[in-house]
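Example record for the data management plan.
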Amino acid sequence: MITVNVNNQNHSFSEPVKLLELLEQLGIKNSGIAVAIDNQVISKTLWATTPLINGNNVLIIQAAQGG
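Corresponding structural encoding:
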């Protein structure tokens, strides 16, 4: 079992997951967002292959419109 912190909330998984799988399981659309793991921004092209490990801190930032 692994536990990762996503925007200050812990989420536990019975098996390892990739970043894109995490977003899908949390119901987060992958457009208009940026994601960092342990303070390192992850390119969207790498989301499907980036594994999460126990204790990772994931920060998801939603782009906001405005002027």
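Summary line stored alongside the record: Residues 19-25 form the longest helix (7 residues).
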